[in-house]
Amino acid sequence: VQLVESGGDLVPPGGSLTLSCEASGFTMSYSTMGWLRQAPGKGLEWVGSITGDTPVYRNYLRDRILISRDNAKNTLHLQMSRLKPEDTAMYYCARHTGDWVSSPRGRGTQVTVSS
Question: N or C: which end of the chain has fewer CB within 10 A?
């Protein structure tokens, strides 16, 4: 199982960003996939996940994010809009294997929201 995130960047407050995660070694469409993030000095936080074609989101993020996947490319996406400085974090994609903390994830991609 290999997961490689990309798309992280420095963006101004109010901006938008799309993160991607390429999976290999397994068929993503058969798994529940999720996005996690870890802000500096804080613990790992579940952002949202998708099972089949049904996404679920952390409540306070649900109006600003969209999770989707391209099964043909075995790729997961996280679209984020109206970004805030508190969205600054390392973002990881993960394949759910029971609990998100111990689920295999990639090395992450850094998102920094700052003017």
Answer: C
Torsion angle in degrees (nearest 10) through CA of 71, 102, 17, 41: 180
SS (H, E, C) the chain: CEEEEECCCEECCCCCEEEEEEEECCCHHHCCEEEEEECCCCCEEEEEEEECCEEEECHHHCCCEEEEEEHHHCEEEEEECCCCHHHCEEEEEEECCCCCCCCCECCCEEEEECC
Low-confidence ranges of the chain (pLDDT < 50): none
* Nearest Cα to Cα of residue 97 among 10, 47, 38, 31: 31
Nearest-5° angle of CA 22, CA 68, CA 16? 90
Read off the tokens for 14: 């109010």
What pLDDT, on a 0 to 100 scale, did the predictor assign at position 102?
92
Residue with token string 């529940």: 32
Cα Rg, the chain, nearest whole Å: 13
